[in-house]
Amino acid sequence: MKIVDQDGKPKSHTRSVRRLRTIAVLPTMLTLANMLCGFAAVYLCMLGLIDAFTGVGAAAKTTLNRQLIEDLLPTYVSVGGVLIFLGMFFDGMDGRVARMTTGTTNFGGQLDSLADMITFGIAPAMLVIVMILTGHHEGLEGPFVKQRFAWVAGAVYVSCCGLRLARFNVEHAEGDLKHTRFYGLPSPGAAALVASLIILHEHVADVRGKILINSLPVITIIAGMLMVSRVRYVHIGNTYLRGRKPWGYVVLMVLIAGTFIAAPSPTLAGIVAIYVLSGPTNTFLKKKKKKQKRKSMAEGEKQTAESNTDSSGKGQSNSGS
What would the CATH number be for the domain defined by 25-244? Predict the structure, then answer.
């Protein structure tokens, strides 16, 4: 296989290997914690499948030893969804800690992408597949078409996540951390959408659980497509949480926190859904605004041309008289 660089020129085979001698310990540990959250989520998916294969229905409801936590997270899959959010916390902390200590490095960026691929790519796809296989009351004997569709949805999601992370690494230089917008849905945002819906399913399974679980593969595919799109999304941390903000921001945060305490899973799913829909909505509104602006400019130019024609006609009539 011929190896070429980004400009298409063949790479020299005599290039010496650069050895990495030192790394930043604390940021690396935080990135590995993110990776292990994804690994643990996949492990919990396996436990859920084992319960489904063996037909042990009660064991799926005994994931922790504390009754309060078991009431909030009654199944292995729901605990896996929470681990994805925990991975998001570590993912947000590693970069900040790196900037406060030794600074960002190429090694940290590469390791971060590998961790994101596991926690925000493979783990959410596995959660969706296991939820479809075990979420129906038929267990693993459910409709084969739905099982195959769940696998396709997971495969599309993982592929799009890999492409999204690779594109981000190529388009953003090392240390470029002050950006306020993303092109395409960030992989943590897509994973948060899937995980929040899975957690929500545990609390509405008896009411709207069937509708949610049937729409989950479609939502997963849409999330994957948004990751590789060019739809603009704001960087929440750099846009809303940095610097000095008006008092309204504090009031809004207090209201969100109170709503989350009262109804955790619906509030979480609602916040994530608003963020995911904000990108296409803002893109549509901007295109509509540009279209109206072009239309108004065209009408203004038309009126100017007509007024110039009328004035020239009147000038000719006056000169003729």
Answer: 1.20.120.1760
